[in-house]
Amino acid sequence: MKITKHKKTRKYMSFYINNFGFREPLLCLIDGSFCHAAYKIRLQIEEQLKKYFQCEVKPIVTACIITETDNLGAGFIGTSQLLKRFLVHRCGHEKRPISGSSCIKSISQTSRYIVATQDRALQEWIRLKPAIPLFYLHNSSVPTLVQPSEANRKAATEGQRNRVEVRTLDRETLTGLKKKEGLAEAAGPIVRKKKRPKNPNPLSCKKSKKKKEMPNGAGGPSAVSEGKVAKKSRKRIKLPKHVVEQLKSGIGK
């Protein structure tokens, strides 16, 4: 289950990173309701955020959120002390503090924050607004990042369409400036070179085996042809003349 949860979390945050410019370290804006729920179950907020998102996450609060929690009475003293441990982000309402939810609505539309809250009304407002990831404790104990809503998907599609139009407009503007300055290249037919037949690789070709020819001299070595040994020539013996004459006379008789 943990592996599946981490996969979903990476998928959801990739959506916000690619479409709305979220960057690490991620900033998680925590309100009093989320901090109180975490305090009751002894949840280590900063440690759990890093484990859940598998990256560097900084929990932040505002002066309005701290002031609102302080005014809730003695039952929220521990929650208020826990909030004061986090980085206090300037919201612009320091002189005249407003409610925590109003403060979050004011600053989350101009900056990139993950909003952690248990306030149902604030959760419904966040679901209708693009570019605001919603984080809460499901059943008051399980950290959960909500899947991007339909408002987020529509805003992402519109943003992609606008980026394509801007790129096309920039390309047309650049082409017009080149033509004005005489830098535009004359458009002509693209001539493609014909591919010539390639010679075979000499390394892949086998060398031809030549047959060795043996000399035909009398005193030379015997010639070998098709596995047969050549016959040796016979020596001629010269006979004396008187022997030849006797042989002839003998034959005549």
* Helix and strand pattern: HEHHEHHEHEHEEHEEH
Q: Look at the helices and sheets and give the structural class.
A: alpha/beta
**CA radius of gyration:** 48 Å
Indicate the percent of residues in helices: 40-55%
Mean model confidence by pLDDT: 82
How would you characterize this protein structure?
- The strands form two sheets. The protein has a six-stranded mixed sheet, with helices on both faces. Strands 7-8 form a two-stranded antiparallel sheet.
- By secondary structure, it is an alpha/beta fold.
- The chain has nine helices and eight strands.
Describe the protein's topology:
Elements: H1 2-20, E1 26-30, H2 32-40, H3 45-53, E2 57-62, H4 63-70, H5 77-83, E3 87-89, H6 100-108, E4 114-116, H7 120-127, E5 134-138, E6 142-145, H8 150-180, E7 224-225, E8 228-229, H9 241-252
Helix pairs in contact: 2-5, 4-5
Task: Name the descriptors.
9 helices, single chain, 253 residues, elongated, alpha/beta
Question: What's this model, at a glance?
Answer:
This protein has 253 residues and is of the alpha/beta class. The protein has helices at residues 2-20, 32-40, 45-53, 63-70, 77-83, 100-108, 120-127, 150-180, 241-252, and strands at residues 26-30, 57-62, 87-89, 114-116, 134-138, 142-145, 224-225, 228-229.
